[in-house]
Design brief:
3 copies of one chain form a homotrimer.
Chain A (H helix, E strand, L loop, with lengths): L1 E10 L4 E4 L1 H9 L6 E7 L4 E7 L4 H13 L16 H10 L3 E7 L2 E2 L5 E7 L6 E10 L1
Antiparallel strand pairs in A: 1-8, 2-7, 3-5, 3-8, 4-7, 5-6
Chain lengths: 139, 139, 139
């Protein structure tokens, strides 16, 4: 049984989903692990991780619009407004999704379904540099 | 330390929660692991996993109704409508819950609380055949 | 590779976030693990776990208020009402967040971002004694 860890940087262009499946899969492929568990961890409180459909791009924009409607960027609703009208909604959207995903590894690859892609979900309006930690355990 | 992996098929009857605690526990019991970590992973983007109360069945129907209200099946709200009015809401409900659960294993059993059951949450209107991957690590 | 497991008790004072980063970090520090994976698991269906900003306390109260608005304590909406008007909303809020977090361990510490704290999110109105299970794997 062995472990491997790395940190990936992800540049975002403001609110929206950034696919990270490919860089995660590429790192995994270099580790020589056939069977194991891969954990992806987002080190932020205003961005998160989701697994979503990787086919029709409309799915991503519909998802983004849903979260904008559900968690309004309306400062009168919040006390925490010093970091901008999008900051508290970003924290809430992060809590409604997740900052962590653990994915079984089979035959050297993530056991994702055919239509599943891994996305970093940026919840802030402005572009950010985000960090995700990858942890792999297996043999 | 050893690993075990399997895939379970879950038949759903349309929207709603299908308990999978029993088949997961049965598979775990056959692995001879006393202490470890069990990961359940749903290979879909329109079904997800939740841990919920396993006593009063009303909890499940209330939960289903809440998610139907929260994420309306109203095509005018979405661009991604080709796969039916329930498809985009299914993706959103999946993002609001989770496709992955990791549960510690103690004394050969999942460390679930007394009232916790594991459920596959089908978000599509029609019955589907779903797959969940189980990954176990421990000794 | 080795494992360690423990259970932590967390006393809540009714609805709201209780930070558990410190007791979790203290337990981890005593295990002698440099690199690994730490899983936190909440054994309840009316409390959950979130990672949130650990700086401005307004973030926590805003988050609590958001979930109170989103999941109304209005018995006419639910069938499961016998355990009080806050019980079914508590189950739903738990499903919207998560009962489990897995966090990579690097250099003997959780790989949390600067502003990330781990919180138990109590969803019931009255104080409760909650249990979280910690599972650590690494070397």
């Amino acid at each position: 049984m062995k472990q491997a860890v790395t940190t990936l940087g992800v540049s975002t262009r403001g609110q929206g989903l950034v696919e990270v499946t490919e860089p995660v899969a590429r790192w995994l492929a270099g580790q020589g692990i056939e069977t194991g568990l891969l954990t992806v961890f987002c080190r932020h409180t205003s961005a998160s991780l989701v697994i979503q459909e990787n086919a029709d791009p409309d799915v991503r924009t519909d998802l983004e619009r849903f979260f904008k409607r559900l968690v309004a960027e309306e400062p009168s609703l919040y006390d925490h407004t010093l970091e901008g009208p999008d900051d508290m909604p970003a924290h809430i959207r992060s809590a409604l999704t997740s900052v962590q995903l653990s994915i079984p590894v089979l035959e050297g690859r993530m056991a994702l379904g055919t239509w599943q892609g891994i996305y970093l979900f940026e919840h802030r309006t402005r572009p950010h540099s985000r960090q995700i930690v990858l942890h792999l355990l297996g043999e």
